[in-house]
Amino acid sequence: MRLNSTEKAVRRDIESWQHAQSSVVTQAMDWVMRPIDWTVDRVAPPSVVERVSDRIEQFLSALNDASEWTYQADDILRAADERGLPAERIGDLRSQPIDDLDALAQSQFRQNTLLAALEGGGAGLGGAILIAADVPLLFTINFRLIQQIGACYGFPMRGPTFRPLVLSIFNVAASDGPEARNEALREVTVAAASFADGRDYKGRVSGTFRDQNRHLPREIAKALVGRKIGQTIPLAGAAIGAGVNYWFTQETARAAYMCFRALYLEWKERL
After folding, report:
1. Cα-based distances in Å from 115 to 49, 122, 139
2. How far is residue 179 from each of residues 21, 176, 209, measured CA to CA in Å?
3. Considering only CA atoms, which of 23, 11, 34 is closest in space to residue 177?
């Protein structure tokens, strides 16, 4: 099916995002965190760094365990109905215009970014002790956000089969680089083909989930560990925790937004 003028404009927006340098938010975070990173490199015990890294890797590898309870489809359907987009099930939303679905997806951003910031600020008050609790909570919030945004475009991200795509979005959020975006959009292409052909999505590479994605959890962990460890710095921990969580969740929202817009367009073109 051919794209209309609005959809072609969205595709150009996605392509600009795909090839752009790091976002303004990420650049600002990098600048603010430079003195924190310097301090962490000199005072954080290696055991703490390794423990936080392991928690991130373990949680990402266990996304399947959280896949059935992080969000309610009825909440998305209710929000869609309030915007004049009635649907009996999530898949019905694919028949709606993309500009309406964009607005629906954007409505999910604020609640999750604020929730993540509040959670990070509270965890930051506890220093190293509460980082172990902060990491899984942060990723649960972001996993829920990815599922919500996917549902807004008519793609229910339920079950373990979608982990390659979800991990790719997490990787974009953590690194915000062109290479990660390219990888995520390649995963989108495979998912679009599966949805259009009525086949089960199995990820871009054959083999088990661990074979497909063994490097991604560790790469995501490496991108976040230094900043999470910054929460151990006395007095500054709450502000750092809130800021890092807000930044990461905002980047997750944008990555998911672009990837699911791309999935919607590729799915439509293949019909």
Report:
1. 25, 11, 12
2. 10, 9, 21
3. 23
Closest to 147 in 3D by CA, of 134, 135, 159 = 159
For residue 69, give the H/E element and its range: none
How is the chain split among helix, strand and coil, in percent rounded to 5?
80, 0, 20
Q: Global pTM?
A: 0.81
| pLDDT for the residue numbered 21 | 76
As a whole number, mean pLDDT of residues 91-109 equals 97
Kind plus residue range of the DSSP H or E element containing 108:
none
In this structure, what token pair is assigned to residue 257? 């937004």
**Which whole number is the average pLDDT over 4-11?**
97
pLDDT at 240 over 80: no
**214: burial class by Cβ within 10 Å (0-12, 13-18, 19+)?**
exposed
Query: Average model confidence (pLDDT) for the chain?
Result: 79
Using DSSP's 3-state secondary structure scheme, residue 245 falls into helix
Amino acid type, 52: V
Q: What is the pLDDT of residues 23-52, one digit of tens each?
A: 666 666 555 556 655 555 555 566 665 666
Which amino acid is residue 27, in one-letter code? Answer: Q
Residue type at 144? R
Main-chain dihedrals φ then ψ at residue 87, nearest 5 degrees: -155, 140
22: which 2 tokens?
Answer: 């790091």
Tell me the Cα Rg of the chain.
19
Q: What angle do CA 99, 245, 112 make, to 5 degrees?
A: 40
Asked whether 75 and 242 are in contact (CB, 8 A), the reply is no
* Phi, psi (rounded to 5 degrees) for 68: -100, 0
CB 60 within 8 A of CB 142: no
Higher-pLDDT residue of 118 and 3 is: 3
- Tokens read off for 259: 């990837």
